[in-house]
Amino acid sequence: MTWAVTTISRLVAATTLSVATVLPVGLGCVVLVGLPTAGQAQSVVKGLPDFTELVEQVGPSVVNIRTLEKAKVNAAAGPGSDEEMQELFRRFFGVPIPNSPNSPSAPRQAPRPNGRSQPSEEPAQPRGMGSGFVLSADGYIMTNAHVVEGADEVIVTLTDKREFKARIIGADKRTDVAVVKIQATGLPVVKVGDVSRLKVGEWVMAIGSPFGLENSVTAGIVSAKQRDTGEYLSFIQTDVAINPGNSGGPLINMRGEVVGINSQIYSRSGGYMGISFAIPMDEAMRVSEQLRQSGRVTRGRIGVQIGEVTKEVAESLGLGASHGALVRSIEAGSPADKAGLEPGDIIVRFDGKAIDKAADLPRMVGSTKPGTRSNLTVFRRGANKDLAITVAELEPVKTGKAAVPAEDSKTASTAQFMGLVVADLTEAQKKELKRGGVRVESVAEASARAGLREGDVILQIANTEITQLRDFETAMAKLDKNKPFNVLFRRGEAVQFALVRPGR
To answer: Does the pTM of the predicted model rise above 0.85?
Structure first.
């Protein structure tokens, strides 16, 4: 493989000011900067971190992971693309490299001498590569689930060049954590750090095998914590250089402790662009413990689809600050259904813990053991309500039926100031929805600007439940037609809030 090397230099040295420093400002211009005061000197003059001791300490615990897979290939085809490029396409584009042996469009038959084709089994071919680190002296190693996914063989190489065939103990796609095991003893083990002590701006270091370059060390700072890019965990964002092959390697703090697993990058080109994400080590350890015990991860579920609560909706409902998780739909027969949750409820607490944003709920529920009886606090029509719920085990999401098309209705009501014409639901629609409401027949003006559409079913107006046309008319009569008000409506299988602003 031919490598193109580009040298990029940047100023990283800190200079101690003695009497004055001359800083170039423009052609022929200088500015004199005086010596900082004694109180400022300690905060201004700081040396850059030295990572050499950390590399010596943690480096032996970091491993290179190669994966192989058996596949039928075209014997007439030339050598497959190198494994680094395979990893790049697979990880960051989600597909094998075009025309490779692993590409879905690649031929799977090898020609016979007589011109006919026959399937041919080839030895295991390189599939991809990544990194990992040693959790225990007896050979348990942590890496990313996507590194070992689909592999027929996993080869682990230690820093002393010893190679071992590894057995996959378990992998969890939802958190992208996997544990593999090699037959070895006396291995150097990493120290696991306390993620809660990690601070934004803190120096961190990564060790891995980008593009197969084993034991490569890169460094940077923590850019953000609790970055929501996944359903069941939030990530540590850094500016540490991460590339294909770094996946599964450790993120290390200045105390030589592993605080995360390098997992993802943000990229428009497939290469590093200065934004990297690591799985927090506290979450990874919880997952790894279950994988080592049973080979799988068990999570709780309650059977709701949720959305964010916007500031405007929170204010219009009287909730105050925007927090909680808006229940958009409920799976029939699920724990939420049995507990009495309703579409439009806002879940504000789970087992006594406040829900600041919608993403908090699946993480709280997911970490709860199935069968546990828990408590929910929901905000419903202006007041809090406590509900008891028994958490079930997470399973594939069931596909709900589409709403029954509306039939002609003989009764209708018009709210001209909000540009809305509504009608009572048919008996079939009420049975399908398992609750009442009014159907939007036509929409214009303020309601159209708020996002309402023909066919939507209005369930609530300004915290008042709407079960029939009479309720709608009563609610309309009580509204201040000069002030915004909230409307809870159903569209398809989900519900959501809209904020209608009359006269705009």
So the answer is: no
